[in-house]
Write a structure and sequence with these properties.
It contains nine helices and seven strands. By secondary structure, it is an alpha/beta fold. The chain has one domain: 3-Layer(aba) Sandwich (Rossmann fold). It has a seven-stranded parallel β-sheet, with helices on both faces. Bound molecules: NADPH dihydro-nicotinamide-adenine-dinucleotide phosphate (NDP).
Length: about 250
């Protein structure tokens, strides 16, 4: 039976690219999305027309009830969950730390940190041999910002990705002998719509001169790292990170 991969935030950007590559590699694919139903359905239609089995489920990953509903929907689909890609993530307008209020911190941390924790919990409950599962892999989307700190842009976002790194390391050790590997991918400057949310759609082109490779990255280049970490080729790799940053 084909394994199931759940990709949160698969309606566009890195999540959609990961969904396309996963389908091409023989996974059943379930993507979740927050608001853009049409885009999520378009990704699903594209995957199905290429011969894959694919579904889309609306769920705000920061809402515990919606995450539980997402996984309940997943339980009703054919195929056993073997991979969770914690991809859904947000950032807000570029700002200095003294301009960041508690409401913004709660929004960013809720989606990026709480969302990843809740989805990881539900995946562990299904994949861990401790709970009767047959093992699997979790791949968390961190960011080069976890190392760089994103000064004058979004230190809150960078800190949320630092939390993802700590969760990756700790959870990897917790479930290492229960058949689950947990790893992270740290993308650098990737051409997606997330930069428009920060108020600068052209951010990658402005900053690409600071990238040793002198270019921004493509979502497909990040997807390759995610798929490798998810695969049996990475069978002895857990608690690790792949930088997809062009050397930055
Ligand atoms: P995009 O903004 O292009 O897409 C974000 C995706 O996440 C969309 O599918 C969106 O759904 C979904 N999403 C956002 N919030 C929620 C939520 N609360 N619940 C469920 N789904 C949600 O982002 P990218 O593809 O650029 O980023 C993907 C991941 O990679 C993120 O974690 C990001 O932090 C990380 N990353 C990206 C980098 C980059 O340069 N692009 C660099 C480093 C890390 P909808 O379409 O419905 O809004």
């Amino acid at each position: 039976m084909q394994p199931m991969m759940l990709i949160t935030g698969g309606s566009r950007g890195i999540g959609a690219a990961t969904a396309r590559l996963a389908a091409a590699r023989g996974y059943r694919v379930c993507i979740s999305y927050r608001r853009r139903r049409d885009q999520a359905q378009a990704v699903v239609a594209e995957l199905r027309s290429a011969g894959a089995e694919a579904w889309a489920v609306q769920a705000d990953v920061g809402c515990e009830a919606e995450v539980q509903n997402l996984f309940a929907e997943l339980d009703r689909l054919p195929g056993e969950l073997r991979v969770l890609v914690n991809n859904a993530g947000i950032l807000e307008s570029q700002a200095r730390l003294e301009q960041i209020d508690a409401a913004r911190l709660e929004r960013v941390l809720r989606t990026n940190v709480i969302g990843s924790f809740l989805c990881a919990r539900e995946a562990v409950l299904r994949m861990s041999t401790r709970h009767g599962g047959r093992g699997g892999a979790i791949v968390n989307l961190s960011s080069g910002a976890a190392r760089l700190g994103a000064p004058n842009e979004y230190v809150d976002y960078a800190a949320s990705k630092g939390a993802i790194d700590s969760m990756t390391i700790g959870l990897a050790k917790e479930v290492a002998d229960e058949g689950i590997r947990v790893n992270g991918v740290r993308p650098g400057l990737i051409y997606t719509e997330i930069h428009a949310d920060g108020g600068e759609p052209g951010r990658v082109d402005r900053l690409k001169g600071a990238v040793p490779m002198q270019r921004g990255g493509r979502p497909e280049e990040v997807a390759e790292a995610v798929l490798w970490l998810a695969s049996d080729a990475a069978a002895y790799t857990t608690g690790s990170f792949i930088e997809v940053t062009g050397g930055r």
